[in-house]
Amino acid sequence: MRYGRRTIKAWLLLLLAVVLAASCISCNKTTSAETESLDETETALSDGSAVSEKETEPITTLPSGTVKSEINSKSTADFTETTNVTSYVRLTVKDHGEIVLCLLKDAAPLTVANFQKLVESGYYDGLTFHRIYKGFMIQSGAGGSADSIKGEFSSNGWANYLSHIRGIVSMARTVQFDSASSQFFICDADSTFLDGRYAAFGYVIAGLETVDAIASVPVQDNGRGELSDPLEDVIIEKACFVTPK
Asked: Measured between alpha carbons, how far is residue 144 from residues 42, 56, 116, 123 in Å?
């Protein structure tokens, strides 16, 4: 009988060791997944991608090989503001200049529709580029956004042809694939390691020099060991729709 109790105790200890080992592996996986998030503060909210009925412009589509040559191919002076919802958005950044984005619905239709909805509502007006990482990207859009959307990238079942090269605009998210809502980033250098994991949805067609100027703003540690917290407010005074002249 005494032998049987020792055997049972030994088996219980072995089982406990297996459970603890499995728990550690799970923790390690969680930590690894968290590092994949471009911004863990991005809020995941309910789904939605409605956009105003005012859009009359046809969808802008470009073959994937054409995108690189189109980046910064225009001047900000080549565009004029419009009340219509278009595929072009101008960001006027205080003390830095203007950036014009070209949105590509064929690459990420839900993402573009959501971004257009936020621009039309004035959501981005007054927000800042709160994360600046020179040689990587500049990021904006933090605040009380409304809707989260499906992540339109290959790891989530969507064939997005855009690559995260310099001048591409894409969506930040949490570790959850369908958690992007309002935060976006603009690559100031090639960051192709993000391909297939983040929803690129357009590119800078004019004003890449403004992106460079913002990327050069002095920064400090963001409290998580990353030098990306700007020492001055980089404010988007206005985000509006524009159309080529």
From this structure: 10, 29, 16, 9
Q: Say whether pTM exceeds 0.85.
A: no
Task: Name residue 223's amino acid.
Answer: G
User: Which one-letter DSSP state was computed for residue 40?
Assistant: T
Q: What distance in Å separates the CA atoms of residue 242 and residue 236, rounded to the nearest whole number? A: 16
> Are 37 and 139 in contact, with CB atoms under 8 Å apart?
no
Helix (H/G/I), strand (E/B), else coil: 229: strand
Helix spans in 71-207 (H): 109-121
Question: Which pair of structure tokens corresponds to residue 154?
Answer: 């290959």
Q: Which two tokens stand for residue 92?
A: 């006027």
DSSP code for 96: T
- How far CA 176 is from CA of 141, 166, 185, 196, 197, in Å, comes to 18, 25, 17, 14, 11
Q: In whole angstroms, how far apart are CA 139 and each of 9, 118, 132?
A: 56, 16, 6
Place of tokens 């509502």: 121
Q: How confident is the model at residue 26 (pLDDT cuts 50, 70, 90)?
A: very low
User: Residue 137: exposed, middle, or buried by beta-carbon count in 10 A (0-12, 13-18, 19+)?
Assistant: buried
pLDDT confidence band for 87 (50 / 70 / 90): very high
How large is the greatest C-alpha to C-alpha distance in the chain, in angstroms? 93
Q: With residue 14 as reference, give the H or E element that holds it.
A: helix 2-34
Q: Which two tokens stand for residue 126?
A: 């007054």
Contact 38, 185 (CB under 8 A): yes
- Whether the CA torsion 56, 52, 88, 107 is positive or negative: it is negative
